[in-house]
Amino acid sequence: MSILKAFDLTGKTALVTGCKRGIGRGMAEALAQAGADIIGVSATLEPTGSDIEKSVTAMGRSFTGYQCDFSDRDAVLAFAAALEEQNIVPDILVNNAGTIKRHPAAEHPTDWWDEVIEVNLSAQFLLSREVGRGMVARGSGKIIFTASLLTFQGGITVPGYAASKGGIGQLTKALANEWAGKGVNVNAIAPGYIATDNTQALRDDAARYNAILERIPQGRWGTPDDFAGPAIFLASAASDYVNGEILTVDGGWMGR
Q: Cys-Cys link to 188, which of 51, 54, 147, 158 (CB 3.0-4.6 A)?
């Protein structure tokens, strides 16, 4: 296989959660550009007529949209069951949906903790289990988690988010340990500081914004477009011998 052909996703179907905006949308659009049809899922995604649907179909790829509240465990399981009932078989699963709640740990509400862990970790496991079961049976598949710099660091005022993203790092490795020998690659992408809705509070705080920027060797915050190449790589045959890895896309932050 030629190296360029190894990155070709023509004929593949990618399920991307949290695809409506930000990093998830960037990855969904990138996979479509590489040839994949897209199943898009978000808590607020319009079933038809969404901006991401228009973007994907303009590339000549198909798009199927679903709504799913990832804080509702029954809804996640019902969504997975609906995929099976409709005979939708993803070749690629991008576990990107997530949430963040900022409040000092000493006063951090219990329900915020529960919601973040459910959305960012438990729902990710459940969907990976349900979709991954079919991948294992077929002997092929690619699973990509969205980790975080807080997979490695503790953060400030986000205890639930840090715990959930640390868990994603270990879940990536645990699934890879079981499934790598069965033809299923499981890896993660850890974004650095990216200009999305999740980081709006940081970017609105001039002192935090400048302190973060000064530490990024590349000298800028990231954008969703920075995840196109990493997503295509981990979703394609080019990464067939990559398992259990957490790829940081951070402008050099972790090396500083």
A: 147
Question: What is the C-alpha to C-alpha distance for residues 191 and 247, in angstroms, rounded to an integer?
Answer: 8
Asked whether 100 and 158 are in contact (CB, 8 A), the reply is: yes
Predicted TM-score (pTM) of the model is: 0.95
Q: What are the catalytic residues?
A: 161
Q: CA 205 → CA 26, 104, 208, 211, 250, distances in Å?
A: 25, 16, 5, 10, 20
Structure tokens at 55: 């973007």
Domain range list for the chain: 3-194+224-249
- Tens digit of pLDDT at every position of the chain (256 positions): 788 899 999 999 999 999 999 999 999 999 999 999 999 999 999 989 999 999 999 999 999 999 999 999 999 999 999 999 999 999 999 999 999 999 999 999 999 999 999 999 999 999 999 999 999 999 999 999 999 999 999 999 999 999 999 999 999 999 999 999 999 999 999 999 998 877 888 888 899 899 999 999 999 999 999 999 999 999 999 999 999 999 999 999 999 8
- Cα 87 → chain centroid: 23
